[in-house]
Amino acid sequence: MAHELQTAVLGATGYSGFELARILTRHPRLKAPLLLRREGSEGGAASLDELYPHLMGQGAFALEPFSWERMSAAGVELLFLATPHELSRELVPEALRRGLRVVDLSGAWRLKQAANRAIYTFKDADATVAAELDAEAVFGAPELHRDEIAKARLVANPGCYATSVILALAPLGRAGLIDQDHGVICDAKSGVSGAGKTPTAKVHFCEVADNLSAYSLLHHRHLGEILEQVGLKESQVQFTPHLLPIPRGILSTIYVRLARKMTADEVTGVYRDFYCAAPWVRVYANGVPQIQYSVNTNYCDLGVALAADGRRLIVISCLDNLVKGAAGQAVQNMNVMYGYGEREGLE
Amino acid sequence: MAHELQTAVLGATGYSGFELARILTRHPRLKAPLLLRREGSEGGAASLDELYPHLMGQGAFALEPFSWERMSAAGVELLFLATPHELSRELVPEALRRGLRVVDLSGAWRLKQAANRAIYTFKDADATVAAELDAEAVFGAPELHRDEIAKARLVANPGCYATSVILALAPLGRAGLIDQDHGVICDAKSGVSGAGKTPTAKVHFCEVADNLSAYSLLHHRHLGEILEQVGLKESQVQFTPHLLPIPRGILSTIYVRLARKMTADEVTGVYRDFYCAAPWVRVYANGVPQIQYSVNTNYCDLGVALAADGRRLIVISCLDNLVKGAAGQAVQNMNVMYGYGEREGLE
Amino acid sequence: MAHELQTAVLGATGYSGFELARILTRHPRLKAPLLLRREGSEGGAASLDELYPHLMGQGAFALEPFSWERMSAAGVELLFLATPHELSRELVPEALRRGLRVVDLSGAWRLKQAANRAIYTFKDADATVAAELDAEAVFGAPELHRDEIAKARLVANPGCYATSVILALAPLGRAGLIDQDHGVICDAKSGVSGAGKTPTAKVHFCEVADNLSAYSLLHHRHLGEILEQVGLKESQVQFTPHLLPIPRGILSTIYVRLARKMTADEVTGVYRDFYCAAPWVRVYANGVPQIQYSVNTNYCDLGVALAADGRRLIVISCLDNLVKGAAGQAVQNMNVMYGYGEREGLE
Amino acid sequence: MAHELQTAVLGATGYSGFELARILTRHPRLKAPLLLRREGSEGGAASLDELYPHLMGQGAFALEPFSWERMSAAGVELLFLATPHELSRELVPEALRRGLRVVDLSGAWRLKQAANRAIYTFKDADATVAAELDAEAVFGAPELHRDEIAKARLVANPGCYATSVILALAPLGRAGLIDQDHGVICDAKSGVSGAGKTPTAKVHFCEVADNLSAYSLLHHRHLGEILEQVGLKESQVQFTPHLLPIPRGILSTIYVRLARKMTADEVTGVYRDFYCAAPWVRVYANGVPQIQYSVNTNYCDLGVALAADGRRLIVISCLDNLVKGAAGQAVQNMNVMYGYGEREGLE
């Protein structure tokens, strides 16, 4: 283990960033990551364990102000951005110019089609550069883009909901098994950490507990990622997120009409083949996954149920929105980028 | 208010029965209900407030052993059955023979078609009588069958999930607005009290909390009620229940392809017209309901979202599974049966 | 029922205010209450059911800007203040000057001793008037001050924690049964609604769920009320609040050394005698109350356990912080002030 | 790392046993543990991941019927018992006779004084042997008995509540800083997994959610462990457990009168000195711990608050009842018994 990689995290104080810092700190291939703070954020805490006493006694978690020079002096090679979309959009061109590789956890670079990107209303300083990077960025689903990720300068880590749905649909989509005329329904349910750490009325305990609510009906930001990765059109997918009274975890119930009659075993076989080399996807032989099975792990769990007609299929997809849906997948991407084992640091 | 009705409840110790006893005790038109206990149940508690200290100081809640004679002596006219399906199946013929009217909260008498009823595997003592009563029983959705309920001897109170879905689909179904070729998806989520009071592994706190699970995929008991009431075939409806980590409340997310292009206002108008005389259905003009809005009330809340194509419709339906989904609806049925105001005793 | 009282509520948009508006609207002795909004609050919602869709279809809940003239024109006799302490401190002198009676739900007027009041750092416009009103205000625990409340112009509705502890200790304290040399421990646990509706980091779902935390150790605001009402000194009482992962409800576990050896039945007898005319306190003959028994009611539930030595006593006290701990008790105070039945409007 | 230890777990299907199997499977010093099932338990599942799909893809978790011969053939040196008290009482003599070392997670061997043991009503086959083992067994709190544990044949892993309270009181007790005349109050709150996996009415989701309840007032089984380990008499300690609506975690709020006036820093210093060599106890310099900080870790977190009088002390103690309160501590004991690093396998 000659070389140890120096990484940096900007935005370690949010839920995903904290999870990321925790994973990186224990990763056997890495030096202690540099934890960087945006100016003015989190009241200027001097270390992450001031904000998360969970970390006490588990190492040094000093938070430093963001600075290109500091990163350069420390020999940072890989920068993780757990920042707002707009800030990622602003920082990535400079980071690449300085020779850093980047895994961006925001939605800034995930979308290839301008129509899908419109929902974000980015204001790019240099539209030409931005367009080049939109084209260059690799969508960071290792199960779909492993080879490109290995060589990528810029990896756009997928959205949490999007990961859950894309991994459930990709095997069918790529095999031409989705009846596209009929359309796909994605009824997704997520824990509250997916909404971020900022205290808003929506995440007040009394608004979430003992409750369930649907939101962003027909226009959630993650829809574009799903369309592009599965190869469907907006008119063919309905995606409905719901807010669950739990801290973390996503379960997506996905309804597909198969393009041809199949048996349940055939369908399971399609998934098993597709993910035979994917260490972080588990395909259930019997029954369907529940949220609790994958929480606090990097797994995406998939299970299916097929109606007697052999056409109406239900796919259940579960994952932890902060791990496989964010920080864990970011580390998995790093593992692929640097030729480490895909499970390293994530057990 | 010359006459006060004498009612009895068999099975008051379960969650629905307790809710029912609580509502009936406060109902302005009623004498104190007779609370009856099945032999051997609940360790022979002498009164309901031994089991539910919530009731202390709010009246007499004596529990007596079930007996036809006791009911007769007390002048019972209406019997509520909050009993297992099999027991309702057994008791109802005798109850009607004795001149009682019955509101049955179980699934025993809800289904008209033998194929749908097959899921219950009833063993009827007298198949002819049972068949007659299957035909005679009125499905107790007052919004759909008010006139028949008013005259009914036997009202089959709908299932909680079924109520949620049927009230969401009936206005469209009766107006021929559902594209039946395309099919309907009902993705439903329920609190734990819907699973009953018996302690099982499934309802252990640690199995439910921080979790979400789908169950009974493609074959839940309530599907038959939905099909019969909305007028759809099994191949046209997918119903997927999920267990939420909350004590009570149901939210159903229902996906329909409209038979013709409409505007959202038109759709809302269809619902408003259909429920203009229904005091316990609320149609949202803007936005969609959440579970917490209807918990502890007898309301079923409905709201819609329509895609830009004017065809892909999402209906959100919320209610409290123990009130509108069980005890409250049973009392609403009683109100209709006896000509009381439909809101009486339920505010 | 010749006369119907006109009330007004300022601050109906918070959790306590909403609960209050809901109770008052259904109260049989009242006209529809005037719901008043502080300038700039809640984005200028025109009615309470915009903020709480729960209320849809249950009456008119128009919100109007606060105005003395509007209240005068409407014939308001009684003003409920569900406002920040400082605002109550400012408005009450003027309200009384204008002939209104006031039930104040804030902490502004609860404390008689300047030392206890110091924690609030009020800035009174007229210190003399404020001092007079401090003396005149009646602590609104009807179980302790029924006669004074009946005649009061200004009733200071107790704090939620304080109600829970005071009702548990008063019977012992007034009978001289507390060993004052030994001191009293009050270990209290509250649901999140007690922290108010403002979204803060502390009430973010992810900070509360799956968690328990102690806070304000040794210096919570409600300690002063406890000391004054029970007749103890600061050195004799320890009060430790904890934040529970539930929306509502308080359970206080209170440890007392009795001044003399007693039996459990004797102790229960002391409570039963003390509360024999109190319709909203329930004393448990066997066992101890749980939070769920009193949630959504105006009851304070009390139960005791006594060690074999006949001296070490544990009192468990439960109530709903938004009802008996706030809005319900405010209505109970109104009932006493106007000679209504103490249970009216609160069943 | 020449030698790899062969362990076995009897009772791996319960919550503690599952946690234990999971930790042991990843422990760097161990061979895969033998997972043994009591006859008739858990429907004869063939492997642990049938019961806990969480484990899928993480190794082999075959469950085998309990057999001394099987253990012998496999070369088991250390047996973990996650069994009912009575069964541990029965099996341990034979296990020791066969040369195994044992870490017992039940309450069978924790108590030295017959009076404290009386609560368990054990029926020993050979009272003499049992008495010898009662004397020989080492109470498995490594922070208190590290040297004896290192040499022990039989380690009695402490109760979850007991661990929480003992670690909070031992530093004061051993330094003579507890005012014993005054007595100690331990107000403890635990998540539901502490009650075990058996579905009972008490752990039904609807009985626990939105609730808090006190239980076993004045006579909980863990009191004896606390008395013996801290060196106090029954008349000097009150221990009150409460059931929290969370899956896991304990917070104990402990009230002590110090034997002499101290400063908060002095008290913190006493704890820091006492635990200077204890890698799994964290003493907070400022503020107090919350449950979420230690959940899913093997830490016991301690923090204090001291009244202005320098005598009235509150200690807050938090831990995860399944880790530091059960399986994690059992592994920590193993680490001490075999000379491994005390943190190994527990990070």
What does this molecule look like?
The structure is a homotetramer of 347-residue chains. Chain A is α/β, with parallel strands linked by helices. Chain A has two domains: 7-158 and 326-337, Rossmann fold (3-Layer(aba) Sandwich), CATH 3.40.50; 160-321, Dihydrodipicolinate Reductase, domain 2 (2-Layer Sandwich), CATH 3.30.360. Chain A is 34% helix and 19% strand. Chain A has 13 helices and 14 strands. The first copy, chain A, has helices at 15-26, 48-51, 68-74, 85-97, 114-117, 127-136, 142-151, 160-174, 205-208, 223-230, 264-274, 291-294, 323-337, and strands at residues 7-10, 34-37, 63-65, 78-81, 101-104, 138-139, 154-156, 184-190, 213-214, 237-243, 250-257, 281-283, 300-306, 312-319. Chain A has a seven-stranded parallel beta sheet with strand order 3-2-1-4-5-7-6, sandwiched between helices. The first copy, chain A, has a seven-stranded mixed beta sheet with strand order 9-10-8-11-14-13-12. In chain A, helix 7 (142-151) runs parallel beside helix 13 and helix 8 (160-174) packs parallel to helix 10 (223-230). Chain A is globular, with a radius of gyration of 20 Å. The two termini of chain A are 19 Å apart. At the A-B interface, strand 8, strand 9, strand 10, strand 11 and strand 14 of A face strand 8, strand 9, strand 10, strand 11 and strand 14 of B.
Low-confidence stretches of chain A: none
Which protein chains are joined by the largest interface, and how many residues does each one contribute? A-B, 39 and 39 residues
Shape of chain A: globular
Give me the side-by-side strand order of the main sheet of chain A: 3-2-1-4-5-7-6
The CATH superfamily of the largest domain in chain A is identified as: NAD(P)-binding Rossmann-like Domain
- Number of E strands of chain A: 14
